[in-house]
Write a structure and sequence with these properties.
The complex is a heterodimer of chains A (about 475) and B (about 350). Chain A is mainly alpha-helical and about 475 residues long. Chain A has 17 helices and eight strands. The chains are: A mainly alpha (about 475), B mainly alpha (about 350).
C-alpha cells in the first residue's frame, strides 16, 4: 500500500514541500527579530532616557540598526513566501483563499505600518527630540504582535480548520472568515510563538555580549547589553515551559495523530511510556532504541498512568504523518532545549538573587553565548513538529497536501535557485552585520557613560549626561 | 456594484500603487545598474541610495498586499495565474531576492571593488522583476491564462510578443518614473548636474516607453482583437488621458521644468493602469473567468473592504508623518553603515 501511495504522489510534491520548508525555515529566523527586537531596543532607550544612561542609548540605537537590516531581509523572504502560496500550493489558496486569506491581508497592513514606524525610528535618531522619538517607536512591538497574530492564525487554521463546511462539490461553503481567524489552535500557537520569539531575540542579543564578555570586554556597555535582553528572555522561559506543557495536553485531545507522532505512540492504550528519541519503523509500527520511561506519557497527557492515549495504529497508514521520526526527534529536541534553557535561567536567577550579579564563571558564559543558537534550533524544531506533524494534510482533515500542490513542472530547479540566492542573501546580511559590529568596536575606545562617545545620540542628552553623576 | 467588484477596484488600486512605488524602485535599480564606473557613477548612486533607502521595504509591501488580496478575494484566478505563469512569477520573486541582497550588500564599504561587481549582478533583479511581472500581466491581458491548475501553456502564456512588449513597457516605465522622481530629488538637493543627468534619461526612456506601449497595443490587436477593442473603446479615454499626461511630463522635463513633474508622471501611469482595469472588467481572466464567477464568499469580500478602511485610517497618517519628516530633513541616518548620512545635498562618494 505504501508503494502504491508513493507512486501516485504528484511529482512536484517533494520539491514543493522542500522549497516551502526551506524558505519558511529561513524566514522564521528573521521573525523573532522583527517581533521582539523592537521591544528590546525600546526598553534600552527607555532606560537610557530615564536614567540618562549613555550606554543604554547606544545599545538601543545599535539594535535598531540591526533590526533595520533583518527587517529588510525579512521583507524580501516574506514577499517570496506570498508568491509561493500561489506558485506551490494553488489548491490551498485557490480553494480556501476566501476562508483563511483575511489574516494575511491584516498582516500585510501590519507589516506596512511596522515598516513605516521602523523607518521613522531608525532614521529619526539624530534629529527627533528624545521622548518624541521614543513615543513614535512605542507602537512598533504592538503592531508586530498584530502581524504575528495574523500569520499564526492562518497557520493554526491549517491545524484546526474552522469557519466553513465542505459542500457536496467538495468546495467550502458557509464561509465565516472571523470564525476561521479565531480557530481553536490560535490562542495556543500564538502564545507559544510569542514566548519563543521573545526568548529567541533575547537570548540571541544577549549571546552577542556574552561572547564579548568572554573575550574580556567587561564594561558597563557589555553588561547592560547582556542584562536587558537576557532578563526579557528569562521571564519568558518559564512561561513557555507552562504553555508548552498545556499545548501538548491540548494536542493530545484535539490532534491525537500529531500527538502520537510527536510522542511516537505506536499502539493505542493506557500506560504509555515516554520514549526519548529511538527509531520508528512505519512498516511494522514499532520503535527500536531510545530511552523509555514507563507510564510517563500517560501521566503527562492525563495525570494518570491509566490515561488512554491514541496510537498511530488508530489511523490508516495513508493518514499518518509521512515521517514520524522527523516529528518525534524534532519534538524531543525542542523540549530538550527548552528544559536546558529553563535550568540555565534558574542558575542565573539563583546567582542574581544571592549576589546581585551575572555569574562570571566560564561555563555560564559559554552556555549564554550559545543560548541564542539553541533557541533558534528549538524554534526550527517546533516548526517542523507543527508542519510535518500535520501531514499528510495541508488543511487538517479536509485537504491533502498532495492535492493542493501545483501541476507546473520544474520545481526542483526553482528550489535549487532559491537555495543559492538565499545563501547569497544570508551571506550579504551577515557581512553587513559583521561590518557594523567592527565599526562599533572601532568607535568604542574608552569607557561607556562618559561624554567621549563618538556616536553620542543627541546633543540634549549628551549635555545632561555630563551633569549627571556617573 | 457588488462587494467583489469593489475588491476588484482595490486590486487595480494596489497595482497602481505598486506601479508608482515598486516599479519606480526597479527603475532606480536600473539607473544604479547603468550608472557606469565606480568614479563616474558614485554621485548618481549616492543620490539613488539617499532617495530609496528610507522607503525601500514599504515600496514592496504593495506587491504582497496585491498577492494576498487576490488569493483571498479571487482564489481561483490567483491559483490559475500562479500555476500557468509559474516561470515568470518565480523569476520575478527571485529578482526581488536579488534586489534585496543588493540592498543589503552594497553598503558594505569595506571592499568597494567587489561592491561594484555585486551591484552589477544583483542589479539584474531590477530589470528581471518588472519584465517578468509585466510579461505575466501581458499574458493575462492577451487571454492566455485559462482557469485551472497549470491549465495554460507554461511558456507561450508569457513568452509571446504581447507579453514581451508589456514586460519591456514595465521596465521602461519604471526607469522613466524613477528618472522623473530623481530629477525632483536632485533639484531639491540643489544638484543641477544630476538633475540634467536624469532629465536626459527621462527623455529617452519616455520615448522607449511610448514605443513599447504602441507595440504592445499593435501586438494585442493580433493576439486578442476582442481585448484590443475593449482597450481602445472602453479604455480609450483613460488611454488617451495617460498618453496626454505622460506627454506633458515629457515636454515639461524636456524644458527643464521640475514643479508638478512627479504628479503628472504618476497621473499618467495611473491612467494607463486604469485603462487596463476598465478594458478587462468584468473579467478576472479574459475571457474565461468573470469577477462574479471567480469571487470568493461575499462575507470575505466585505471584510476585505472593511479592513482596507482600517488600513487607510492607520497607514495614511503614518505615511504622511514619514513623508513630512523626510521632507523636513528630520530623518538622516543610515542604518547600514550606522553612520550619519551627510547633509542633504552632500553627495560626495
Amino acid at each position: 500500500m505504501f508503494d502504491l501511495l508513493a507512486a501516485s504522489e504528484p511529482a512536484q510534491l517533494l520539491p514543493a514541500r522542500s522549497q516551502m520548508a526551506f524558505t519558511l525555515m529561513f524566514h522564521i529566523i528573521l521573525v523573532p527579530l522583527g517581533v521582539a527586537l523592537p521591544a528590546l531596543m525600546l526598553l534600552a532607550e527607555h532606560r537610557g532616557l530615564k536614567r540618562r544612561d549613555q550606554a543604554a542609548l547606544t545599545l538601543a540605537r545599535r539594535w535598531s540598526h540591526v533590526a533595520g537590516v533583518t527587517f529588510a531581509v525579512g521583507a524580501v523572504s516574506g514577499t517570496v513566501l506570498s508568491f509561493e502560496m500561489g506558485l506551490l500550493w494553488p489548491g490551498l489558496t485557490g480553494k480556501y483563499g476566501d476562508v483563511f486569506g483575511l489574516p494575511f491581508a491584516i498582516e500585510g497592513i501590519a507589516f506596512f505600518l511596522e515598516a513605516i514606524l521602523v523607518a521613522i525610528y531608525i532614521y529619526g535618531w539624530k534629529r527627533l527630540r528624545p521622548w518624541t522619538h521614543f513615543k513614535l517607536g512605542l507602537p512598533i512591538p504592538f503592531v508586530a504582535l498584530v502581524g504575528a497574530f495574523s500569520i499564526i492564525s492562518a497557520n493554526s487554521w491549517m491545524n484546526t480548520p474552522a469557519g466553513f463546511t465542505l459542500g457536496p462539490d467538495g468546495w467550502p461553503t458557509d464561509i465565516d472568515p472571523i470564525a476561521a481567524i479565531f480557530n481553536k489552535a490560535l490562542p495556543w500557537e500564538f502564545l507559544h510563538f510569542v514566548c519563543a520569539a521573545y526568548m529567541a531575540a533575547g537570548f540571541t542579543v544577549a549571546s552577542v555580549y556574552a561572547v564579548g564578555w568572554l573575550r574580556g570586554r567587561r564594561d558597563r556597555y557589555h553588561r547592560l547589553g547582556f542584562l536587558i535582553p537576557f532578563t526579557v528572555a528569562a521571564i519568558f522561559t518559564p512561561v513557555q515551559m507552562v504553555v508548552g506543557d498545556l499545548i501538548a495536553v491540548w494536542l493530545f485531545k484535539e490532534m491525537p495523530v500529531k500527538f502520537a507522532a510527536m510522542e511516537v505512540v505506536t499502539n493505542s492504550g493506557t500506560h504509555q511510556p515516554e520514549i526519548f528519541f529511538g527509531r520508528y519503523d512505519a512498516a511494522t509500527n514499532t520503535v527500536s532504541g531510545g530511552i523509555s520511561i514507563p507510564n510517563l506519557n500517560s501521566i503527562l497527557a492525563g495525570n494518570s498512568p491509566d490515561t488512554y492515549v491514541q496510537g498511530l495504529d488508530a489511523v490508516p497508514l495513508a493518514d499518518r504523518p509521512s515521517n514520524v521520526n522527523v516529528v518525534h526527534w524534532a519534538f524531543d529536541i525542542m523540549v530538550g532545549i527548552g528544559t536546558l534553557l529553563m535550568l540555565f535561567v534558574i542558575w542565573f536567577a539563583w546567582h542574581w538573587w544571592r549576589k546581585r550579579d551575572i555569574p562570571s564563571s566560564k561555563p555560564f558564559l559559554w552556555i549564554a553565548a550559545s543560548a541564542g543558537v539553541l533557541t533558534y534550533i528549538a524554534i526550527e524544531a517546533g516548526w517542523i513538529v507543527t508542519e510535518v506533524g500535520r501531514q499528510p494534510w495541508i488543511v487538517y482533515g479536509f485537504e491533502r497536501t498532495s492535492s493542493a500542490v501545483t501541476g507546473a513542472d520544474g520545481i526542483w530547479l526553482s528550489f535549487a535557485v532559491v537555495v543559492v540566492l538565499y545563501l547569497v542573501m544570508a551571506a550579504g546580511a551577515i557581512t553587513v552585520l559583521r561590518a557594523m559590529a567592527r565599526r562599533w568596536r572601532r568607535a568604542d575606545i574608552g569607557e561607556y557613560g562618559d561624554a567621549a562617545v563618538p556616536y553620542g545620540p543627541r546633543p540634549e542628552v549628551e549635555a545632561s549626561t555630563e551633569k549627571a553623576p556617573s | 456594484m457588488t462587494a467583489a467588484d469593489a475588491v476588484a477596484v482595490l486590486v487595480v488600486l494596489a497595482v497602481t500603487l505598486y506601479a508608482w512605488s515598486g516599479l519606480a524602485d526597479y527603475g532606480a535599480g536600473f539607473w544604479d545598474l547603468t550608472a557606469g564606473g565606480r568614479e563616474g557613477g558614485g554621485r548618481v548612486r549616492s543620490l539613488i541610495d539617499a532617495v530609496i533607502t528610507p522607503v525601500w521595504e514599504a515600496n514592496h509591501v504593495w506587491l504582497v498586499y496585491l498577492l494576498v488580496l487576490t488569493w483571498t478575494a479571487f482564489g481561483t484566478a490567483f491559483a490559475s495565474a500562479m500555476t500557468t505563469l509559474y516561470i515568470p512569477l518565480m523569476l520575478a520573486a527571485l529578482g526581488i531576492v536579488l534586489r534585496g541582497a543588493n540592498f543589503a550588500l552594497r553598503k558594505d564599504a569595506a571592499r568597494a571593488g567587489r561592491r561594484h561587481v555585486a551591484g552589477m549582478l544583483f542589479g539584474l533583479g531590477a530589470v528581471l522583476t518588472p519584465f517578468c511581472l509585466g510579461a505575466a500581466l501581458g499574458g493575462i491581458i492577451a487571454g492566455r491564462v485559462p482557469p485551472g491548475n497549470a491549465a495554460g501553456n507554461e511558456v507561450t502564456s508569457w513568452w509571446n510578443p504581447t507579453s514581451i512588449l508589456v514586460g519591456l513597457l514595465a521596465v521602461a516605465m519604471g526607469a522613466f518614473l524613477a528618472a522623473v522622481y530623481l530629477i525632483a530629488e536632485a533639484h531639491r538637493r540643489g544638484l543641477p548636474g544630476l538633475r540634467e543627468y536624469f532629465r536626459r534619461r527621462a527623455l529617452w526612456t519616455g520615448v522607449l516607453a511610448l514605443l513599447f506601449g504602441i507595440g504592445a497595443l499593435v501586438s494585442l490587436r493580433g493576439d486578442s482583437p476582442q481585448m484590443f477593442d475593449r482597450f481602445v473603446t472602453r479604455g480609450g479615454v483613460l488611454l488617451a488621458a495617460g498618453a496626454v499626461l505622460l506627454a506633458l511630463t515629457f515636454m515639461r522635463a524636456a524644458r527643464g521644468g521640475v514643479r508638478g513633474l512627479r504628479l503628472l508622471a504618476a497621473g499618467g501611469v495611473a491612467a494607463l493602469v486604469w485603462a487596463w482595469g476598465v478594458a478587462q472588467y468584468p473579467y478576472l481572466l479574459p475571457f474565461g473567468l468573470t469577477i462574479a464567477d471567480g469571487a470568493g464568499a461575499p462575507i470575505t469580500q466585505k471584510w476585505m473592504l472593511a479592513w482596507f478602511g482600517v488600513a487607510l485610517v492607520t497607514l495614511v497618517p503614518a505615511l504622511i508623518l514619514l513623508y513630512v519628516l523626510d521632507q523636513r530633513g528630520e530623518l538622516g541616518e543610515d542604518p547600514l553603515t550606522s553612520l550619519e548620512a551627510g547633509e542633504p545635498g552632500d553627495l560626495r562618494p
